[in-house]
Task: structure prediction
Amino acid sequence: MSLAAAQFVSSTTLGTRIVVRTRIEGGVTDAVGYLRSVSDTGCMVETKRGLVVLALADVVAAKPVPPPPVPRAPRHPLAD
Result:
C-alpha cells in the first residue's frame, strides 16, 4: 500500500474524477471514474462499467484526472 495514495483518496472531494491503481492477484489494475464514497478502509469509484469498491490497503497509486473528452461528431451525416 502507498500511504500517500491512500491519503490522497481519503482527502479527495467526493465527485472528483480520479484514477486509482490497486494491487490484484497477479499484478495491478486501474479504476477511472468519479469518487462516490470513502471510509476508513475503502472507497467506491463510479466507472463506465458501474460502481467499484476498492480497499485502501490495496491502493498503490492515485491521482485526479480531467473530465472525459466530448464525443466527436460523426464524419458523415446519417442519410435519411
